[in-house]
């Protein structure tokens, strides 16, 4: 390396902006977040930061934040950085509503967040945000689920199902295998179950380290309790057990 | 000549606002809503300079809603009234002040109590059992002084409001096209179509 | 020294996506005097150990580890006192501003988040080093009752039932985890705090001039009382809990 990664965000001779690439590494070190579109809902789930024994669950901040009554944002990466983005997004959502009467569309909000992230890759004296986000919700007066991702570089993209953060590759591969664009999860339950299942690929400790939020049309956002998530986890574990036994039996028969 | 009237009852607060929009000697509109809901349990009625009123009310509404989204928690009606007062107090000291007077009705879910605040464009804030801005007070305070009791039910409150509106109909020099009535209680804010 | 290239500016990611300046600030705090916070069902205890450098140093009555932020939040500091005092001053101003705007005391988390956002800013904007201070906040508000938070130079914050920051924090945290019970009383909390501090201190024994101590409780009238203990009161407490020089004598 020849100094092109030292000044904040400038091009190196071979065309890299190192600070942005390194910011992506910070994202990969953050806890995993997953978003999945159903037919009439979007589910966002994430790995909760390790809840240590003496942590107070009432007041430990959540990794899924409401931006307005119809849209949520989850992230992977530096927690403190994410708060800044979330705050900016919330203010923009209210300000948009104040000037245009309509609440923000999910697409607009994503472009806004990505725009802020882009600005921090090109302005003097700042480092990029070490954060990727998943933005999920429904446009006002619409029943089409929306799910977007933004990255430290300011790139944004739309997804049917996506994972970011630590081990996101494993989760994405799981989703590619188990999610069909033609036949998305038909019910909310199925969608939540798939999200939990995807997270269980990388979360070892089960329900207490998982957070799930469901967004439905017309500003209905619901967060699942730890017990509710526990039920899904048990169900999935049971199915896995049964499958294992079936396999064993087959082997036995042969 | 806009009418804004508020009556605080035992379990609810009534806000009544005139439905007419007037400009000069003309009535432009007969179904106006001079209120904005700020949060689940707080409602603001406003009167004053046309343009300023809605601009101010929606600005306040956006800020209170931003607080609710940020904190996942509703500001108490007392805190809302303080915030509004501060905004008007800042405004009167600015280059171009808002000319807006407001009534704030709220239900404090923490202490289970009803609240009615009156704030004028100078930033004067008072908590009151019943309140009005503009001319409407001249015609209704005598009735309210005579008949108001703090432990009144919503039904009784509406009957008292009816007396007030009848008096206004009789005495006001212009037609204000009746009043729009809203109620705040423990279940939130709602319109009363028939009252 | 793979890290050398990336540790000279705070606002820069290393190739592994780390912020070395922030990590070094955390490292500096791990040498600072320990601070402990314990939430009981009827109050919160904050205890801190200060490093006494010389016998000749005048120990003024002013505390250097414990500060009142407003009428219902006390904070304990580990790290650079000078850095901390800047943050404490901004926190006090912010808390009074909130009180002026809403005519209500600021909820604990809002103040914690505000200070954490200030700290975050110093990890992202150019030419500045992060604040070298971690805090333990003990406070009361109507939404959640008693609350205990920590924040560190990265701008992260989290809520706890019992927590320690500063030197020997991992040892202290293990001790707290062993002895903390959910239904602990303030009385027991005080004892646990002093015992933990005495077991993790680098000095031979705890003495009143090494310890700063405070409690926060709510009276039945609804008034929140913050008590920062005077040296004599700490002396009495130490004797009562039996963690003082006695151990040496034994």
From TrEMBL, chain A:
Chief localization: cytoplasm
UniProt keyword annotations, A-Z: Cytoplasm, Nucleus, Proteasome
CDD domains xrefs: proteasome_alpha_type_7
GO terms under cellular component: mitochondrion; nuclear outer membrane-endoplasmic reticulum membrane network; nuclear periphery; proteasome core complex, alpha-subunit complex; proteasome storage granule
GO biological process: proteasomal ubiquitin-independent protein catabolic process; proteasome-mediated ubiquitin-dependent protein catabolic process
Pfam families reported for this sequence: Proteasome (PF00227), Proteasome_A_N (PF10584)
Subcellular localization(s) per the UniProt record: Cytoplasm; Nucleus
Protein function: The proteasome degrades poly-ubiquitinated proteins in the cytoplasm and in the nucleus. It is essential for the regulated turnover of proteins and for the removal of misfolded proteins. The proteasome is a multicatalytic proteinase complex that is characterized by its ability to cleave peptides with Arg, Phe, Tyr, Leu, and Glu adjacent to the leaving group at neutral or slightly basic pH. It has an ATP-dependent proteolytic activity.
PANTHER family referenced in this protein's UniProt entry, alphabetically: PROTEASOME SUBUNIT ALPHA/BETA (PTHR11599)
The protein, known as: LADA_0B05688g1_1
Species classification: Eukaryota, Fungi, Dikarya, Ascomycota, Saccharomycotina
TrEMBL record, chain B:
Alphabetically ordered keywords of this record: Cytoplasm, Nucleus, Proteasome
One GO cellular component, as annotated: proteasome core complex, beta-subunit complex
A Pfam family this chain is assigned to: Proteasome
Alphabetized GO MF terms: endopeptidase activator activity
GO annotation terms (biological process): proteasomal ubiquitin-independent protein catabolic process; proteasome-mediated ubiquitin-dependent protein catabolic process
InterPro entries membership: Ntn_hydrolases_N, Proteasome_beta2, Proteasome_bsu_CS, Proteasome_sua/b, Proteasome_suB-type
Compartments (UniProt record): Cytoplasm; Nucleus
Family (UniProt): Belongs to the peptidase T1B family.
Subunit composition and interactions: The 26S proteasome consists of a 20S proteasome core and two 19S regulatory subunits. The 20S proteasome core is composed of 28 subunits that are arranged in four stacked rings, resulting in a barrel-shaped structure. The two end rings are each formed by seven alpha subunits, and the two central rings are each formed by seven beta subunits. The catalytic chamber with the active sites is on the inside of the barrel.
Known function: Component of the proteasome, a multicatalytic proteinase complex which is characterized by its ability to cleave peptides with Arg, Phe, Tyr, Leu, and Glu adjacent to the leaving group at neutral or slightly basic pH. The proteasome has an ATP-dependent proteolytic activity.
PANTHER family in the record: METALLOPROTEASE TLDD, PROTEASOME SUBUNIT BETA TYPE-1
Stated name of the protein: Proteasome subunit beta
Record organism: Lachancea dasiensis
Automatic annotation (TrEMBL), chain C:
Top-level taxon of origin: Eukaryota
Entry keyword Cell membrane: no
Keywords from the UniProt entry: Cytoplasm, Nucleus, Proteasome
UniProt-listed InterPro entries: Ntn_hydrolases_N, Proteasome_alpha, Proteasome_alpha-type, Proteasome_asu_N, Proteasome_bsu_CS, Proteasome_sua/b
Record-stated family: Belongs to the peptidase T1A family.
Subunit structure: The 26S proteasome consists of a 20S proteasome core and two 19S regulatory subunits. The 20S proteasome core is composed of 28 subunits that are arranged in four stacked rings, resulting in a barrel-shaped structure. The two end rings are each formed by seven alpha subunits, and the two central rings are each formed by seven beta subunits. The catalytic chamber with the active sites is on the inside of the barrel.
Task performed by this protein: The proteasome degrades poly-ubiquitinated proteins in the cytoplasm and in the nucleus. It is essential for the regulated turnover of proteins and for the removal of misfolded proteins. The proteasome is a multicatalytic proteinase complex that is characterized by its ability to cleave peptides with Arg, Phe, Tyr, Leu, and Glu adjacent to the leaving group at neutral or slightly basic pH. It has an ATP-dependent proteolytic activity.
Name of this chain's protein: LADA_0G14664g1_1
